[in-house]
Amino acid sequence: KEKHKILHQLLQNSTSPVDL
Amino acid sequence: NPVPEGCSQLEIGHTFLHIERITQNVVKSHIETSQFSTEELRRLAWTFYNPEETHSYISRSAETMWQKCAVQITNAIQYIVEFAKRISGFMDLCQNDQIILLKAGCMDVLLIRMCRAYNPINNTLFFDGKFAGAQLFKALGCDDLVSAIFELAKSLSRIQMTEEEMALFSAAVLLSPDRPWLTDVQKVQKLQKKVYVALQRCLQNKGASEEKLAKMVSKLPLMRSICNLHIDKLEFFRLVHPETAYSFPPLYREVFSS
Question: Which residues of A touch B33 (CB under 8 A)?
Answer without folding.
Answer: 18
